[in-house]
């Protein structure tokens, strides 16, 4: 935990385990309800008096520190996630970008917007639109990007001038604590961000929701957890508080018969296997027109066979583990179930503890659990379609609407797919996971309620608007 600007190392502790070898790599405090309420009260009572320039400088200094210590920080992420160093070094780069863009937003959110609401010059009372930080934000983050996901909650909150209490995943709290410590070292005031850790995620969240003065809860994680949090918010009297859930995804990549197949393979290598397939925007369904399926598979298999997976601490490794053995077993079971229902295993399907090989399956049906649900691991399921129309139909058969993509030379096909899928972000001849830090990000359906992240909208969303009239 971090309270009053200091790491707390007293009370009951729980172990943080390396998924690759089972080593205990650290400990975190199993926060009591008293700890939690104290952290919430201190952050709620803190009122930010930093100017936009001062807040921006904290973020820029933090970005510079991360840039100078990439390998050291990447190794910490690797220790508690099992992700390979190639992936965790990339994650540090994203933290740096998030900090720098958030620094730019510090001044943006404070602009006077009163003029936007003056549509005429009639003799009316003088209007003033007041834009100010919320008093307290609660941020809850997952395990798959344990620094980057934290950065995307904490940095916009700093940009907005709002206080935050952060609850990172109980599987990967060390990275979150380290990030906030670095912020404090570079000028973040005590209690502007406090960190709560707990072994039992559900109990910790319930205790957080006992605090009545929360203004907003922003959560990134799976659908089931997101729905539980929403129910608990209602149960604890937060029904009308702002809730920003960034939930799961089951992104489709449509490969048309006119596609650049080499480009498609390149996108899949990143979209299915980077970060061990543990991204909400990972490609979960490769939907390809039958006409080019065999040629595509030949190209794909050559590349997949070159993936070096195993020891995540080896800088030559391309792919490490998933988060734990339980998760790996769940993915393995879905792979085997798909095979029993007619899918053909082309590559992989092997598991050792939390280490799961990159896996490719052909002749997958959209009804199979492997692709009907979010399978959070390094799997490339290939679904064959007779033509573009059927491919688009298959892509639409999911309640997840976070991201999607198409590979085609036909702009009309691309624009039709974008319009009909209506996902939060759509790439034409690019990966579903592509995003810029400033652009809106967030899904619909089972992927979210339409609230948006991206550092600009995230920071704006952490402020309240009031109106005064001078008569």
CATH class of the largest domain: Alpha Beta
CATH topology of the largest domain: Aldehyde Dehydrogenase, Chain A, domain 1
Residues in helices, as a percent range: 25-40%
Tally of alpha and pi helices: 15
Description:
This protein has 15 helices and 22 strands. Helix 2 packs antiparallel against helix 4 (85-108) and helix 9 packs across helix 10 (290-304). It is an alpha/beta fold and 471 residues long. The protein has helices at residues 33-45, 52-68, 70-81, 85-108, 148-160, 173-185, 201-208, 223-235, 261-273, 290-304, 325-340, 369-372, 388-395, 411-421, 455-461, and strands at 2-3, 6-7, 13-17, 24-29, 126-133, 137-140, 164-167, 193-195, 216-220, 242-246, 251-255, 283-289, 344-347, 351-352, 355-356, 359-362, 379-385, 400-401, 403-407, 425-428, 444-445, 463-470. Helix content is 40%, strand content 20%. The chain starts with a strand and ends with a strand. Helix 9 (261-273) links the parallel strand 11 (251-255) and strand 12. The chain folds into 2 domains: 2-247 and 448-470, Aldehyde Dehydrogenase, Chain A, domain 1 (3-Layer(aba) Sandwich); 251-436, Aldehyde Dehydrogenase, Chain A, domain 2, CATH 3.40.309.10. The chain has a 7-stranded mixed sheet with strand order 13-16-17-12-11-19-20, sandwiched between helices.
């Amino acid at each position: 935990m971090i309270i009053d600007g200091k790491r707390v190392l007293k009370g009951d502790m729980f172990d943080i385990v390396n998924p690759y070898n089972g080593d205990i790599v650290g400990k975190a405090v199993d926060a009591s309800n008293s700890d939690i309420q104290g952290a919430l009260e201190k952050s709620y009572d803190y009122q930010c008096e930093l100017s936009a320039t001062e807040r921006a400088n904290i973020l820029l200094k933090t970005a510079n520190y991360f840039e100078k210590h990439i390998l050291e920080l990447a190794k910490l992420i690797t220790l508690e996630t099992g992700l390979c160093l190639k992936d965790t070094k990339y994650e540090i780069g994203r933290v740096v970008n998030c900090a720098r863009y958030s620094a730019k937003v510090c001044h943006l959110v404070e602009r006077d917007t009163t003029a936007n609401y003056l549509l005429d010059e009639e003799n009316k009372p003088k209007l003033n639109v007041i834009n100010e930080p919320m008093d307290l934000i609660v941020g809850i983050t997952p395990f798959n990007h344990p620094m980057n996901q934290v950065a995307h909650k904490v940095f916009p909150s700093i940009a907005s001038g709002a206080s935050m209490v952060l609850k990172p995943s109980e599987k990967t709290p060390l990275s979150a604590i380290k990030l906030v410590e670095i912020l404090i070292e570079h000028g973040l005031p005590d209690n502007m961000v406090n960190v709560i850790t707990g072994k039992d995620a559900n109990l910790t969240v319930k205790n957080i929701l006992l605090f009545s003065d929360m203004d907003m809860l922003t959560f990134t994680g799976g659908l089931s957890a997101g729905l539980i949090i929403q129910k608990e918010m209602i149960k604890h009297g937060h029904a009308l508080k702002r809730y920003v859930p960034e939930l799961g995804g089951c992104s489709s990549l449509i490969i048309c018969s006119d596609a650049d197949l080499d480009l498609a393979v390149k996108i899949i290598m990143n979209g299915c296997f980077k970060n061990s397939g543990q991204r909400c925007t990972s490609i979960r369904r490769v939907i390809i027109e039958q006409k080019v399926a065999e040629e595509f598979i030949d190209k794909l298999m050559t590349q997949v066979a070159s993936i070096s997976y195993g020891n995540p601490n080896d800088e030559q490794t391309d792919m490490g583990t998933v988060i734990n053995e339980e998760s790996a077993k769940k993915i393995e079971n879905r792979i085997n179930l798909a095979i029993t229902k007619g899918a053909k295993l082309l590559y992989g399907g092997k598991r050792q503890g939390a280490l799961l090989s990159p896996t490719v399956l052909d002749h997958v049906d959209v009804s199979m659990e492997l692709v009907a649900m979010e399978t959070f691991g390094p799997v490339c399921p290939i679904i064959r379609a007779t033509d573009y129309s059927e491919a688009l139909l298959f892509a639409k058969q999911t309640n997840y609407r976070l991201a999607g993509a198409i590979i085609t030379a036909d702009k009309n096909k691309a624009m039709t797919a974008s319009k009909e899928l209506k996902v939060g972000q759509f790439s034409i001849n690019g990966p579903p996971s592509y995003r810029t830090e400033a652009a809106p990000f967030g899904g619909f359906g089972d992927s979210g309620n339409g609230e948006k992240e991206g550092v600009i909208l995230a920071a704006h969303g952490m402020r309240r608007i009031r109106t005064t009239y001078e008569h």
